[in-house]
Amino acid sequence: MSPTSTRRVALRAALGTALAVPGALALPAALAAQQPAAAAAAATGRLSVADHLDWEDVSDARLSPDGKQVVFTRRSVDKVNDKWESAIWLMNADGSRQRPLVQGANARWSPDGTRLLYIAEGKPAGAQLWVRYMDAEGAAVQLTKLGETPADAEWSPDGTRIAFRMLVPKRDEWRLAMPAAPKGAKWTEAPRVITKLEYRRDRQGFVDDGTQQLFVVSADGGVPRQVTTGDWSSGAPEWTPDGKALLFSANRVPDAEYAWRESDIYRVDVTTGAIAQLTRRRGPDGNPVVSPDGARIAYVGYDSTDATWQDAAISVMNADGSDARVLTAKFDRTPQAMWWSADGRTLFFVAENEGYRQLWSVPAAGGDVRAVTTGKQVLSVTDIGRDGTAVGIRSTALEPNDVVRFNVRTPEQVTRLTRVNDDVLAGKALGQVQELWVRTADGTRSQGWLVTPPDFQPGRKYPMMLEIHGGPHSMYNGGFSLARQEHVANGYVVLYTNPRGSTGYGSAFGNAIKNAYPGKDYDDLMAAVDTVVARGIADTDRLYVFGCSGGGVLTSWIVGHTDRFAAASANCPVTNWLSFVGTTDGASWYRNFAKLPWEDPSEHLRRSPLMYVGNVKTPTMLMTGVQDLRTPMPQTEEFYQALRVRRVPTAMVRFNNEWHGTSSTPSNWMRTQLYLRSWFEKWRAPAGTPRTAPVVTTSATTSSR
């Protein structure tokens, strides 16, 4: 394995993909403390939606094997074609000499640092594997001419081969003896025959029949050789240090499509194709990372239960699968990337915890998990070198994503290597971000943040947006948000929280909404609103609520349970669980109810916002992408029609060229911002209008921890 190679945890909660990213301060006295005084004094301008057209992002930073250079992906807006475009950039390890190399992404250094592997458009069509030589000439060579898209490409330890994953289409089993069409005939296109349980995927459409298999190709180019076969898909490949085998995760069992949250670790000999199964427990095991000496394999997984959310743990086993033991059972957070130290004594990993993301470590022989980095930051480490140098992407409340570098032995000494949005933010006053913890009446504590306008004045009441995340198993964080900063630049206060069901707070907190979503998460959201109102910050006649996906679910639920909000926007929502579970792009949602709907539909109906539409008085807009397969458009249409029948003020905004969500293209991001505020500004309760209290009255308090 290359000493600087990275593996990301492939395990994702089914709910997290089915619907969609310590220490508290006091309100509101410390609101000005997070922005340097000099910068605040100099910044007088305001952000606008037009700034999105100049916005950039960075990702996937990788150290060269000698530690002297860093490659990373830099993304910018193509203003003419209304899309994001990516390019691979190179810089010295101190951040100097930043320059673009090639169009593409997923750059990986060869073990000797002389070449760079990446994925970019090529001939005959579609994504191909490329290699750029890092000498003075800088030649870029297309290695493959594939008919399908390659993924997860990795160098062999000696740099002579490249392993990758790719779809192998399945031949059509339906061979009909149709008569030949007459010359010039315009017959209807043949039907699509579906036989798989999961046949559609958001942002892709219909899934091609076939399986993901592993391939190996010479680093000099040529015809790729298929290494795995069968009716099972294989996960990302990981080379063993001797270059003789690949490790991967898969669910190689009969009727694998019906085995929910199941996978094991396998080893395949790249010469013979012989496969050995290394793990055998019930549950998902994945993301194998082999130790530098090849003697041990670290991986991530858990023993499966009927919980809707379980945090995964790191385990270590011998190379032959023996002596498996869990290292992070007490940590109760899910690792998202993992590396061995050069001496094989320590495992480093990234994990979210209470609204932030840090680098952690655990002894490979067992012991306590330790936080390597700390502070109010969202840190995604993407590479760690043999000398302990780490690079990654870091964001804070007032600093957008940039590439950073530090050493794991001195993590407090962080060097910011890029400043890709300093030009956009120059002269712009930013809103302050305030962390708060709220206690709901039943004693549950949840975390949130309040973003205030740049010219915030204590004692003044502001219109407030409550923003709700999707998932529902996901997590808002304390990092930078251009969308929220643009809203507060227009005079709003934005409150966003992590109610029950959110990740980053342990398995019990995430699983607290099992068979009860929406439910107590509503109480947490209302408690947060009550807290801000009690501080005299929010104008109760101008309270607004919105969210997408799982946030759309809770928004449509909220308006059926209280009319305290002057207006709402339920974006890409689920409003009818009975019709949703069989039409979304996956069958796993059937498992998120105590009984199947044909056995007993009562729970599906009880948890459906549509069943409470008779209570809705709040003007409610709905915004959904016309191509959405995750929360399909009929979910929006059902709620919209019901509101119209009841003469509740409503509008349905159907976003073109959007799958799940409403802001993947630059123009739609701007439209989403503007439609929200336009709808909210249209509705304001007249002063003194009686407001209905929440169904469950909460007693909210703020705590420091």
Topology at a glance:
Layout: E1 7-8, H1 14-18, H2 37-42, E2 56-63, E3 69-78, E4 83-92, E5 99-103, E6 105-109, E7 115-121, E8 127-133, E9 140-142, E10 151-155, E11 161-169, E12 200-201, E13 205-206, E14 210-218, E15 225-226, E16 238-239, E17 245-250, E18 264-269, E19 275-277, E20 285-290, E21 296-301, E22 313-318, E23 325-326, E24 335-340, E25 346-353, E26 356-363, E27 370-371, E28 378-384, E29 389-396, E30 399-407, E31 410-416, H3 422-425, E32 433-439, E33 445-451, E34 462-468, H4 482-488, E35 493-498, H5 507-510, H6 520-534, E36 538-548, H7 550-559, E37 567-571, H8 577-580, H9 602-606, E38 620-625, H10 633-645, E39 650-655, H11 666-682, E40 701-703
Parallel strand pairs: 34-35, 34-36, 36-37, 37-38, 38-39
Antiparallel strand pairs: 1-24, 2-3, 3-4, 4-5, 6-7, 7-8, 8-9, 10-11, 11-14, 12-13, 14-15, 16-17, 17-18, 18-19, 20-21, 21-22, 22-23, 24-25, 25-26, 26-27, 28-29, 29-30, 30-31, 32-33, 32-40, 33-35
